[in-house]
Amino acid sequence: MMQPKLHVTLLTGRTIEQGVGKEYGKSSPQYQEACSMVYMDVGDMQKLGVKNGTNVLVTTPNGAVVLKAVKYPRGATPGLIYIPYGPWANSIVSNVTTSIGMPSFKGTPAEVEAAPGQSVLSVKELLKKEFGR
Amino acid sequence: VSVINAVTCPICGCLCDDIEVTVVENEVVKVKNGCAVCEAKYLGYKSEHRIRQPLIRKDDKFVAVPMKEAIHKAAEILANANYPILYGWSSTNCEAQRVGVELAEEVGGVLDNTAVVCHGPSLMGTQEVGIPTSTLGQIRHRADVIIYWGCDPWSAHPRHLERYTSFTEGRFEDSEWKSYLNKVKAAAGKKKLLSAQRVAPKQQRAAVADSLVFNKPPEILQKEGRKLIVIDVRKSMTAEMADYFLKVEPNKDYELMQAIRAMVKDEELDVDQVAGIPVEYLKEVVDALVNCKFGVIFFGMGLTQSAGKFRNIEVAISLTRDLNMRTKFLIMPMRGHFNVSGANIVFAWQSGYSFGVDFSLGYPRYNPGETTSMDILLRGESDAALVIASDPGATFPKRAIQHMVKHPLIVIDPHMNPTAMLGDIVFPSAFVGIEVEGTAYRMDNVPLPLKKVVEPPEGILSDEELLKKILQEVRSIKAQKAQKKAEAA
Questions:
Q1: Is the per-residue pLDDT at B80 higher than 60?
Q2: Fewest 10 Å CB contacts: which of B77, B114, B185, B217?
Q3: CB contact (8 A) between residue A95 and residue B310
Q4: Which residue of B has its CA nearest to A19?
């Protein structure tokens, strides 16, 4: 059976947990916990058959990354996903700067699907995979 | 035990200067008044993630080396590079930034700060149309309409509301903290009522449900006193606190602002809704803006990073200008890093441009899209990089970093962050605002002194000292080269 896929709009941005994690240190468990996740709408999660806290694969033309899906706690946001700033988000964000230096970090298309068998990479694993270091 | 008062917090653009730090035996043990991020920084700065000595990558592993060797290697890379990028600067003091400009000019590199992925578009928008703004003190005492557009201060600037806007006791405007608490209590009460009414007639339920309809502007918008309006694509934590939250469709901020501009000028709109917001509700919001005494728009990455980018800022400033024909209105970007404003100011004061400054021709040039670090990396043009007081490894798109690591990468940072993990030469530095004093600019461009509360670990230098040493070494390498050339001739 084909895995159901969902077309969504990708947003990246700050969360307070990301802010606290980055100050503890970017190889700390707090930072890993705060940034290797994606906020999703409850309805969207049901459509994909994804439970709160399980893994999903987010794909864009620039790459794919496995993240932990977390239910967006404040109201419905159908068709939107939100990933905190960090190496995970940056492995898939757009690099189109429209000639002004600023890549489109918000409001770009992405696809989400359930990834039950795949695990979320740590910072070190992610850097090794993307940059070979 | 010593308690140090009025410490300036070196994290976000709020630069809260009322932090109280308790120090025991050269270690911070307690932080008062700060937010969660502030506490994490003051209590976590000595963690195991700290870099302890200069490191050089050999056979894909970091090897500790003496400071002198690391400085010589770094200076050699910069002196021999054709087009190096010197990026970061936003989490250090103005004194270090000043040395950075000198170094960039000496090596003919590109000097860029984190504004390029943050409020660079805001600077460009400001260069197009100017900006009506003020200091945060004015806003604290006078603002009665506060708009947060595309930003979530609860998460990114946790004490902004408490120190500068809705929840401050101003001279002419009162704090809305108590009424916010009442609102929270009332909402909890209504929820209880709703669940208790499960058996009640349908109309009753409908009546209660109707009063909870989310998108209709509440009456409070037309009343005296402070009003908080949040405009965002998702219901953020700040939106939860707001008197009114407008949910705009992604990438449609530009047209929403243009619609509001038209309505401020008493134009009629031919559509029922703009960017997902019904025009009849929008009218009530515009009434509230026009009828306020002193309004302010704070904006963030929601505008600068989504479709439109600097055009969004241009039109937001134009909206503010239009509102000033009817009442008093101001606008301010929510600056992220604690001294990114300072980096813009120091660069502009030294070179004429606030970010993306290219010294490769021997004089400063600025052309966003051409001389900005992001574009240079994406085009694959640079042949070395120095990253200081920032973390592009965690903030730049993958392809930009893939080019950055192809060439020598020098990193100066207190912590082992992703950029340092990717670096070729890594220098440890002291924490500015904890172990080093200096000057930083708040988001409203007010300079504030940063305090030194503890001594840095032995042998660890400040950014300023490190840069001065590298600059000196670059100059001596260049002098030797010139001498050799002269002898050969």
A1: yes
A2: B185
A3: no
A4: B37
